[in-house]
Design a protein that fits this description.
515 residues, 20 strands, alpha/beta, seven-stranded mixed sheet
């Protein structure tokens, strides 16, 4: 993990590979490049002409833009990296936390292979410092566990590791002794480290991350951070009547698991339950996915990874709220023992489900876990899942949908997600779509109308929520795994989507901001 510290050192005297400064687009159609606060010492060393020099090099201050130039005379760092912040804020306003987070992530990615960089971005307050720290730590992420290390060893001989992420960040302009700043940095480190752990899990190939292996990772983390853990293996699942989880996992040589992570605080007044879909590989089962749709299905456990990371982050932050995480882990494979289309499963809740499509398996494992989580009578249940391609059709690859049995709770989660920089959109649960899941054989079928398929999946899950419990469903199918070019603090591959939303929800709940 990249190291990060608050520093009061002058930019000119700091030994580093680069100094990162922010630039923005001036207001109006004729507005020129503006050097952001934090870079005053750098600008002064260029005789106040840093903006004009950067404009000559083509810089415009747009988000995601990076321009490198030699550092001025007298600086110990050899390079200045100017990163775009977008539009200059209106009068009396400051750069938004997401703009700072994105710019810091962009700069950190641009400095891959460097040992140390000083970030002289605009720090107006502790929240801004936290956003920069979070963006830089997330942007510096790299997953190289399975890469050939030959090139890296060769690069090290030449004094530079071309594959390693930025090793150290010095954040300038903060207040190292200020309690608010220290807390913001500590929070950024904890959340970023756990989010990056979720990314690692999503990126790990399924031959190394099956349900048992995932449960082992969770067990080790629980022991480290004082979290109570319970792992139900296939025997316990059979005894307990978890027909949904067993029905999905029965076709695989790697048996399923249901993991319960319990973080408690002595002063907690509220209890949140997070439930994550953990299909460590999804072939579609007997309803086999076509070629071209299987290759990234190691990411189908991203919901469970997000829940796991959020619970550990809550524990590390010592939040005054009880948080229980449920990881519904299974591998969906076709075999002679696999569940067939037409089979009927008796779920943990006692309801029967006719399985018409074995590729609609995530809702089956979630249904069991939601029903089990309901027994604890939490104040709210939030499930997280890469559940439907239909949600990607509706919202694209960067936005996840939110459904709920309570409109106010859905709105709160939407606002919280926007607050932390995760694009979301509230989605309805139309009652008329429920009829499409009527089954002549069982209480309900696992699929219904094709149109509005993401909403149908939400309606299915709603059937398993305990009476009187507030519930929300986050369908993260689009943003959980990024196949395009990296941007901001978002890498290629696993993204850790929903971790920050869940953590902030826990923080607001602990503070009493939610009903």
């Amino acid at each position: 993990m990249t190291a990060l510290t608050l520093s009061t050192a002058a930019a000119s005297g700091l030994r580093a590979d680069a100094i990162v400064v922010g630039v923005a687009k001036g207001a109006g159609s004729k507005g020129g490049l503006v050097v952001a606060a934090g870079a005053e010492a750098v600008d002064k060393a260029y005789d106040g002409k840093l903006a004009s020099v950067l404009e000559t090099l083509g810089a415009r201050g747009a988000e995601g833009e990076v321009t490198k130039l030699p550092a001025p005379s007298g600086f110990k760092a050899p390079v200045v990296v100017a990163v775009g912040l977008g539009e200059v804020p209106e009068k009396d306003e400051t750069y938004g936390t997401e703009a700072l987070r994105s710019a810091a992530g962009t700069a950190a990615r641009a400095l891959t292979g460097s040992k140390k960089a000083a970030f002289a971005l605009p720090v107006e307050d502790a929240d801004g410092a936290g956003a920069i720290a979070e963006g830089a730590l997330l942007g510096a992420y790299s997953f190289g566990a399975y890469k050939d290390q030959g090139d890296a060893k060769s690069a090290k001989k030449n004094g530079k590791d071309a594959k390693a992420p930025l090793a150290e960040i010095a954040l300038l302009g903060g207040k190292p002794r200020d309690k608010a700043y220290k807390a913001a940095i500590e929070r950024a480190v904890a959340v970023s480290e756990e989010l990056n752990r979720a990314r690692d899990l999503v990126n790990t190939p399924p031959n190394d991350l099956n349900p048992e292996a995932f449960a082992a990772v969770a067990t080790a983390a629980a022991k480290e951070h004082g979290i109570k853990i319970q792992v139900l293996d296939e025997k316990a699942l059979t005894k307990g009547g978890f027909g949904g989880i067993l029905g999905v996992g029965v076709g695989s040589d790697a048996p399923p698991r249901l993991v319960k992570l319990s973080y408690t605080h002595s002063k907690a007044k509220k209890h949140l339950a997070f439930v994550g879909k953990g299909i460590t590989y999804d072939s579609g089962g007997i309803s086999l996915k076509p070629a071209g749709h299987n290759e990234t299905m190691k990411c189908d456990m991203a919901g469970a990874a997000a829940v796991f990371a959020a619970v550990v982050a809550a524990a590390r932050l010592g939040l005054e709220v009880n948080v229980t995480g449920w990881l519904a882990l299974a591998e969906n494979m076709p075999s002679g023992s696999a569940t067939r289309p037409g089979d009927v499963l008796r779920m943990y809740s006692g309801k029967t489900v006719e399985v018409l499509n074995t590729d609609a398996e995530g809702r089956l494992v979630l249904a069991d876990a939601i029903a089990k989580a309901s027994e604890d009578k939490p104040d709210a249940i939030v499930d997280v899942a890469t559940l439907t391609g239909a949600m990607m059709v509706a919202l694209g690859n960067r936005t996840f949908g939110i459904m709920a049995n309570d409109d106010a709770f859905r709105t709160s989660i939407h606002e919280i997600a926007e607050e932390v920089g995760e694009p979301t959109w509230p989605m309805p649960l139309p009652a008329d779509l429920r009829k499409g899941m009527d089954s002549p054989t069982a209480d309900i079928a696992n699929i219904g109308d094709r149109m509005g398929g993401g909403l149908v999946a939400g309606l299915f899950l709603k059937e398993f929520v305990g009476e009187g419990i507030t519930w929300a469903h986050l369908d993260i199918a689009g943003p959980a795994f990024h196949e395009g070019a990296p941007f901001g603090y978002t890498p290629k591959g696993g993204t850790g989507t929903a971790v920050r939303t869940l953590v902030r929800l826990a923080e607001h709940t602990a503070a009493g901001d939610l009903g």
